[in-house]
């Protein structure tokens, strides 16, 4: 199976976690796009969605699914999203699609995080994929130096020749060279640096269930 087919497989499998009559939290990325396509087939059985990015909002609306503002909703039963890396404990690196801040917000208001990913995303230790960090632009230089002190190399993410601007109007640093052996401590530490909006290590908001697409089918890890 191709990677695209594996993504479609887990996108479809995630439907079983959607609670009829309720709102569903929806992440961002190519795997989630497959989930949104599958969700469209049961749109009459859900109330709508809370989205983690402008891109997912546009896709949900195009599929005829109503999108609610996260701040109008107290709690969601489930949040479904992809990952750039996931380890055996459900800790993840996310933000390859630059949507990490809103993803973490919607994940935090959800009782259950279901991660959907193809098997290439599974790792023993987080860090091979550069850790995305959303930052306030005026703090970028200082944060780059703070990562250097930890042994990481932080680079400003570009779109074309200009810095990429997130849905929140901020910038992204991608930090390579780190081995995130204690994701909970790492997330807490970086969160405290002035100018960090969100670090793309999801340890405090880890996945409760992971649906991994493999050539043998969907493997559920919970
Ligand atoms: C976006 C994310 C995505 O979940 C992550 O990048 C995985 O994306 P894809 O499903 O396209 O591989 O965190 O900010």
UniProtKB/TrEMBL annotation:
Annotated InterPro entries: NagB/RpiA_transferase-like (IPR037171), Ribose5P_isomerase_typA_subgr (IPR020672), Ribose5P_isomerase_type_A (IPR004788)
Enzyme's top EC category: isomerase
Keywords: Isomerase
GO molecular function: ribose-5-phosphate isomerase activity
EC number: 5.3.1.6
Binding site for substrate: 28-31, 81-84, 94-97, 121
One annotated GO biological process: pentose-phosphate shunt, non-oxidative branch
Gene3D superfamilies: 3.30.70.260, 3.40.50.1360
Chloroplast is among the record's keywords: no
Residues forming the catalytic site: 103
GO cellular component, one term: cytosol
Pathway entry: Carbohydrate degradation; pentose phosphate pathway; D-ribose 5-phosphate from D-ribulose 5-phosphate (non-oxidative stage): step 1/1
Keyword hit for Isomerase: yes
Classification via CDD domains: RPI_A
Reaction(s) catalysed by this chain's protein: aldehydo-D-ribose 5-phosphate = D-ribulose 5-phosphate
HAMAP family given in the database record: Rib_5P_isom_A
Family the entry assigns: Belongs to the ribose 5-phosphate isomerase family.
Subunit comment: Homodimer.
Function: Catalyzes the reversible conversion of ribose-5-phosphate to ribulose 5-phosphate.
Protein name: Ribose-5-phosphate isomerase A
The gene coding this protein: rpiA
